[in-house]
Amino acid sequence: MKKILIAAIVCVAALSACNNKSASNITKGNASQMDTLSYYLGANIGQGVSSQMSEIPFDYTIMEKGVSDGAFERSKQTQEQAVELLRDYFTNRLPMRHTENTKIEADSTSEQELLPLFATKEECDSVSYAFGNDIGCNLRSSKLPLQVVWVIKGLQDGRNPEVELDNATIQEYLRNYFTVVRPALAAEESAAWLAKMEKKSGVKKTESGLLYKVVKAGDMSLAATDDRDIVKVHYTGRLQDGTIFDTSKFENRTKEQQDQMREWEPNLFDENGNLIEENPVEFPLNRVIKGWTEGMKLVGPGGKIILYIPSELAYGERGAGRDIGPNAALEFEVELIEVKPYEEPAPAEESGEAPAETPAE
């Protein structure tokens, strides 16, 4: 369901939940001054809704209110609640009504009227609002410089057949923005952020451009030296605005993630729901980003290090997942617990037996 709801804005690379409290570039906007990015993005969404869901009689006024409330975090309905409501409607209630209507149409003797796709006005209102709220949440968490007034204007025009829009122009504009303009802006932002981090007390720089600050050195006699060494760590990864995108530390997870962990791994918690013991993670250094491979050799077991990693030593122009955009520099705070040195596998012992004969052809 989630994929369907945001299919029209799939070009937005960094989408996350609406409870993300990090800084947003969403503004109300000026209705008298066109904002092309916002308008074209809204039109793209509107066209997607019109082409994929034209049969569904949404209340678009309520949907637009949901977009605005979601974008500005004014809704009492969380994004998770909105998606759950939409999932129930689109995967349960709507298919059931379609099935019943198919039966009615197939029965030539039936005088029964077709079932409406919304059973009540209340259902129409709730689904329309949830749909808009989900869109608004995704727009906000994309951290794009958007003006809501122009996103909504684009939504209106995109689903209005009387408004002539050049779809090819819209698609080319968005393609260029997300593949050329946005990555270039992100590279500039990353460079400026790294320059700022480099000036912080105790921060050093390697030849590769990796910035690091050793908070606690640990036992350097046991430090990793081979890219095939395995490290056991606790870590927290942050975007440049401080948003945590990944962590092994329970205390740094969102409330939703903590509750989910209690549900999925109850053996890790006591009867009061308190974590008994945290599980660190381990991996070989040749299986992680270059900034980690290099940085983990700069601290020993028992130590702690902060890494400020340029994008070329992280995920580069492609980014990673829904949180890490193209050309994003990243921060990692790492506690190194243990290093397991790589050991060359022992050579296979010769058995002294003659090799088995291959079957004759």
Walkthrough of the structure:
- It is built from nine helices and seven strands.
- By secondary structure, the protein is of the alpha+beta class.
- The protein has two domains: 2-165, no CATH class; 190-340, Chitinase A, domain 3.
- Strands 1, 2, 3, 4, 5, 6 and 7 form a seven-stranded antiparallel beta sheet that branches.
- A hairpin with a 5-residue loop joins β1 and β2 (211-216).
- α3 (60-71) runs parallel beside α5 and α4 packs across α5.
- The chain starts with a helix and ends in a 21-residue tail after the last strand.
- Residues 1-22 have low confidence and may be disordered.
Beta-strand percent range: 5-15%
Rounded to an integer, what's the Rg over CA atoms?
A: 27 Å
Number of domains: 2
User: What is the averaged pLDDT score?
Assistant: 88
Number of strands: 7
Contiguous low-pLDDT stretches (5 residues minimum) are 1-22
Distance between the termini: 56 Å
Task: Give helix and strand order, one letter per element, not per position.
Answer: HHHHHHHEEEEHEHEE
What is the approximate shape? Answer: globular
Helix-strand category: alpha+beta
**How many helical elements?**
9
**Helical amount:** 25-40%
Largest sheet entry: 7 strands, antiparallel
